[in-house]
Amino acid sequence: MSQNYVFQEEETSPIDFGRILGAAKRRYVFFLIPFLTILVVCIGVILFLKPVYESTGTILVETQQIPSDLIQSSITSDANQRITIIKQRVMTRGNLLQIIDKFDVFGADRQRLPVSELIERMQEQININVITSEVSGNRRGSTTIAFQLSFDHENPKIAANVANELITLFLSENVKTRTARATETTAFLNSETQKLRDALTKTENDIVAYKQKYRDALPEHLDLRLRMLERSETDLREYIREIRALEEEKRYLQIELTAAKTGRTGSGGEIVQSELQENIETLKKELLDASTRLTESHPNIKALKKRIVALEQQQLEEDKNAARLAASEGSAAGSTYNPLLEKLEIRIESIDGKISEGRRQIEKAKRKVAEIEAIIIEIPQVERGLSVLNRTYGDILEKFNVLESKQAQAQLSQNLEEDKKAERFILLEPPIVPTEPVRPDRLKIMGIGSFLAFAAGAGFVVLIELLDQRIRSASELEAILKHPPIVSIPYIVTPTEMGKRRTKLVLYILAPFMFVIVALVAVHFLYQPLDTLFYKAWVALDKLRISLL
């Protein structure tokens, strides 16, 4: 009955725990060999890897203390960009070599390795982590509020010293860069302002010289020249009118003189008009009367004018004949004194003098009018040239005013930087000597190594078991013969084997305790001291208790 029960159990159970346990008892040596080998290798790796300590300092990017609406800083670059630039300035070959020699960063490798490799290793050990804050809820609107600078080294003191030195260089380089840039901006604007000031002075001198050259034809004197031209033309017309009046008077005196010479004067010396002259005067009166009623093209007007001209021509011929006759009679009668003739001749001579003087004045007035007209014609050209100079002066003046305003703004920005009121870097947390290494993660390596050791041991046992062709159970025999065995004889245990089993049992009981002890020793010496872990666990439990309360 017991045999049938065993067979049914083997057929119904999906996992043969008995076979597994039996294999474990038989093959534990094959399990321990790869398990211990890999575990020892893992421990060796942990012991071989040197601990690396990281010392980190935090620098706060403090915004400008004075509102930017009042004073605009000349440094407009983003803090992240400025950190990158300062990093390139600080991490130069000279600075890094100086730090390496100052703190003996690489020890004996300093003399053995080339400088380029030392610089590359130094740069790899420096880490900068920028801390940003998203202003508008997206990445594009983020702003840099701080950054962390750290240095990795096997010696925690060297890591802290180098990190402090790098942070000092960052802070000083930031102040120096900002002040230098503000000073350069102010100097550049001063230079440009001085250039525009010189250009303004030169343009002013050009305008003065231009006005001095064309002082008679300046546009602002146009009204004066027009008034002068009008006055000169008025004088010219007045001279012409006077000349005409004098010529008319002269003609009248000549008539009187002719009348006096021909004896057509009255007892009082007045001229006795002939019939021809009376007709002329009558026709003139008729013409004057008709002109008030008729136009110039009227036939009566034209006829009156022709008759007047004909009679005047006739009167002129008669006067000439009378004058010649008087001259011949006078020469025949001798030189008889006539005071009227002398008076008339003196007046005619005086009028001739006035006429000559009037004609000189006319010529002078004409020249003056011509000069003024030439000046007036030249004024538009002068105005165009003066407009070009004034436009140039205005453009330069506008640029000068803008640049002068920027110069004042740049000077304020420079004062802002020198007084350290602008955006600046503040050391928030200085680097300290680290107490725990950041690499390697020994607990993680140990966990992975243990898993791999167990898997390798188990796999090796399974492999050996599969290669072993011996039959160790009735189910295996049935699987081969395709028929169940007739009878099964159980294994008979001898007293000696019983003693060995008791010894193994004791060892099995003591093995976990030994394993725990070895693990604690390994953790104490390879990871962290047990008192430290105990303290951390105590603190964690205390925090958990407080949170639960």
Automatic annotation (TrEMBL):
The chain crosses the membrane at residues 28-49, 445-467, 505-527. Keywords: Coiled coil, Membrane, Transmembrane, Transmembrane helix. This is Lipopolysaccharide biosynthesis protein. It comes from Sneathiella marina. Residues 193-375 form a coiled coil. It comes from the Bacteria.
